[in-house]
Amino acid sequence: MNKYKKTAEFLKEKINIQPKFGIILGSGLSNMKNIIEIEKTISYENIPGFKKPTTEGHAGNLIFGYIKNIPVVAMDGRNHFYEGYSMNDITFPIRVMKYLGVNCLITSNAVGGINDNYSVGDIVVIRDHINLMGSNPLIGKNNKELGPRFLIMNDVYDNTMIELVKNYGQKNKIKLHEGVYAALTGPNFETLAEYKFLKTIGADIVGMSTIPEVLVAKHMDLLVCSLSVVTNLGTEDTMSDTSHDSVQDVANTASKKMIELVKHIVINRKG
Ligand code: HPA
User: Catalytic one among 58, 129, 177, 219?
Assistant: First the structure.
């Protein structure tokens, strides 16, 4: 039995629930867990293979529960490559989710806005991505049980969920964009030259996470939807205002809208 399956079996003994949706609560978005009717919370420290997040604002709990009677599992806090964890470490929980029975992964994160039409507080549903992390969790001997060696990257982000998000946004006047996400390793925010470079290559937003988890999810054939909150802008006159605290504050404020969107997806995407 592989290590992901082993951890899934370990968790199944502790819960009476077979989650259909996996949700990652990103920076400043921890209170999105308030939509979940919680059945069980397990600290990452007590789960074989899970690593404790070292970043402030990332609790490190796996939460099992229901959103409107639909079983979900949520990661309250994620691990990042910049913490020194390996690509395998940070994507381990996603593979475990698949073995728990999850079909759909919803990720959230905080991002810098690059597109001139974006403002702080806007929400972006990711249409496509550019991996500039210089690494990939699929590097290494491929385990065919998990997925194919050479993964085709079409329709990585589920169109049905993107449409659900856009329609809900339109009806409820939530300022929302559909964009391309670029990930760098961090932990520093980008230089002005880097923000300009990212705009040139077609990115609308930039962050330090998400792509590793999404790659592993696609490898295992999970449907993915990724939502981002624009917490700062990559422009000369605004970039000096950016800090981890300001990122968390803006994300926190936007989390009410994120909660509505996640709820809408879970209720309406038959996974
Ligand atoms: N760059 C990278 N990651 C981020 C940013 C940014 O400007 N804002 C929030 N996360």
Answer: 58
